[in-house]
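hey so u asked for the seq, here:
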Amino acid sequence: MKQGNWVRLLFEEGIQLKADLGPENVFDFTIGNPAEGPPEIFREALRNLAENPIPGMHGYMPNAGHPHVRKKIASHISEECGIEVPFENLVMTAGAGGALNVALHCLLNPGDEVIILSPYFLEYPIYIENHGGNTVIAKTSPDYLLDIQAIDQAITERTKAIILNSPNNPSGVVYPSEQLGQLGDLLRSYKESSDRDIYLLCDEPYKNICTTT
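ran it, structure tokens below
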């Protein structure tokens, strides 16, 4: 607990401040807890499930998650991205942090390197270290966009993955499609020259709150 990052430490401090000063006097912007509760339709669905449980709903599920849930999500992703995503390729996890830890556990051998882009979510180095990896930090441009040259210079023979967080936490920057294409070209070029894959781990928990102007 004492080794938690500053985001978590500030969150704990916020709880104490609310107790000392009153919750109406403290505004917590640390870990993205919603200010509003879920809508009534969500509570109705919970009440309906409680009163009319689906047979087996409280038992163990397949390791990857319920197939009907994965099929629904695969259909949504396929429509959103314009490519066919088989539901067999999806694995349900307990949140984005859980997903990143599972992915890093699958990918990393001791000493492998993972590139993260500064500024970055402060738990990324912890996730990487959890699975024997080493964190390599690549700078971004003055306006926090991708610096393709800096990423290129950060790649070594031990690089196994890059974590891409867009919209970025904490900067809020959304990386433009042109730069994402350049990053894809860089990784394909590395694959051709070294016959090694560098995996791109996309952390996108905020993508559905983006707005257009």
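Helices lie at 6-21, 40-51, 67-81, 95-107, 124-130, 148-154, 177-194. The first helix runs from residue 6 to 21.
lmk if thats what u needed
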